[in-house]
Amino acid sequence: MHAAIYYLDTAPWSNSFLKKIFKFDLLVRRYTKDHEWVDTTDDGIIVGITEFAQDQLGDVVSVELPEVGISYRHNDAIAIIDSVKTSTDVYSPVDGRVTHVNESLLSQPELINKSPYQDGWIVKMMPESPAQLESLLTKDQYDESVGNTEK
Amino acid sequence: MRTAFYERHLGLGAKIVDFYGWDMPLQYSGIIQEHKGVRGSAGLFDVSHMGRLKIRGPGAQDLIQRVITNDIRQVGDGQSLYSPMCNHSGGIVDDVIVSRLGPGDFIMVVNASNRTKDMDWIMTGMDMNRCEIKDVTTEISLLALQGPQSSHILEKMGAGMMGVKPFRLVQMELDGGPCMISRTGYTGEDGFELFFDGGHAGIWDMILESGAEFGIIPVGLGARDTLRLEAGMMLYGNDIDEDTTPLEAPLGWTVKMETDFIGREALLSREITKKLRGFMVVDSGRVARKGDTIYDNERPVGTVTSGGFSPTLGRPIGYCYVLPEYGVGSHIEVGIGKKRYKAQLASTRFYKR
Q: What is the pLDDT along chain B (353 residues), one digit of tens a residue?
């Protein structure tokens, strides 16, 4: 389509670029049915787990992070979170390459409980295809999927 | 089913889970905080889901001696005893605490999961003319007050237990009704268990009020599990069951071969094919869980029965059954998910007060 035109003068994953193509605002946080949240920035995406997920897990005691540079497919397990009572995988919300991991989680896994949307972020990734971002859930869709009727 | 304290749990913000048909608090403030609260000060647990069976009559003592592996003759009035009950193959039917209130008057605390099975099992060999057994679980409430400040909290309530030894019990009046307090628990700390009529649920509030100055907190089943795991205590259904014997579990000290009990012959002749050991995961924070496999290089040599995180040690711990030749200190691997992690076998007593 016309994507190549924008490619020349705009960072490929910048929100303004995506907005022009996909007509929706990726600055607004998106979600997966597996309780990951996804923020889009000019440098790719940031992935963490939701408040609902951290509350369900309880006290997080360890996080196993992926290696920077590895590429994952959509729904591949990219990280493992152990809480006192259970273990869970974190899934890649899209196809993409890991660019950063939150190494603070290695010494302070409890950041996932204390600050799931800020200090408790898990990985940053460079997605392969912006189209996959479009299929992620909106907040309303996510809230509905977890049965959260509070509005 | 709900205990007499259900509304109080909700009021304290507990997360409720179904535990063998009982709506029980999993946690209030958080498992780690509650765990540390018990180790550092005191915690109050609702354990009214535990089964309680009254066994009474002139034949009660003989019946109990027949079904438990420990020696009930060593237990006088006002004393308690921990013991497995075994089947004819030596497998563990349940692990229980029997208390002798008086001659021919016993109360047995059993696992919630085994309540009806235990009743049926005990009644199988019972002489109806010489004793009776009654399930009083839903009539009597059971609270556990555990932690180093517990005796001070009871003292302040006028329920002094300072001079009472572990595994001894006292009957007294509390909140205008009869109450039995034993110096027992499932946390590895000093502590008490209080048995009283379900109508006196206010005793929960009395304990929290008395304990406020000591920093008491309510504690749920989540921390109950991490506390017992650190302290080397078995969980029925995980670490012991009908396919394991007290000699494979670290419960040999509860087996008194000089007594005549069901399973004795099997325990004398049965080969020990596995031993329960503690283990610590090395170089990783991954927590092993029940059912994970223990490896020696490529060879599977055991299975995890309980896995968890030790708040005291700040690292993952667990119990596993391994081939008997793998002793404490052996280097092994545990398979968690798709990977293997280095671990070392250890004593089950990760915590000693």
A: 999 999 999 999 999 999 999 999 999 999 999 999 999 999 999 999 999 999 999 999 999 999 999 999 999 999 999 999 999 999 999 999 999 999 999 999 999 999 999 999 999 978 888 999 999 999 999 999 999 999 999 999 999 999 999 999 999 999 999 999 999 999 999 999 999 999 999 999 999 999 999 999 999 999 999 999 999 999 999 999 999 999 999 999 999 999 999 999 999 999 999 999 999 999 899 999 999 999 999 999 999 999 999 999 999 999 999 999 999 999 999 999 999 999 999 999 999 98
Identify all chain A residues contacting B26, using CB atoms and an 8 Å cutoff: 85
DSSP string, A48-91: EE-HHHHHHH-SEEEEEPPPTT-EE-TT-EEEEEEESS-EEEEE
> In angstroms, how far apart are the furthest CA atoms of chain B?
63
Of the candidates B291, B341, B352, the residue with the CA atom closest to the CA atom of residue B316: B341
Q: Is B346 on the interface with A (CB under 8 A)?
A: no
Which among A64, A3, A37 is positioned nearest to A125, based on CA atoms? A37
Q: How far is A52 from chain B (nearest CA, A)?
A: 13
- The DSSP call for residue B292 is P
Query: Chain B residue closest to A81 (CA)?
Result: B286
B141 to chain A, minimum CA–CA distance in Å? 27
Q: Is B336 on the interface with A (CB under 8 A)?
A: yes
CB contact set of B159 (below 8 Å; sequence gap of 6+):
B172, B174, B179, B181
Model ipTM?
Answer: 0.89
Residue of chain A whose alpha carbon sits nearest to that of B34: A59
Give the predicted TM-score (pTM) of the model.
0.91
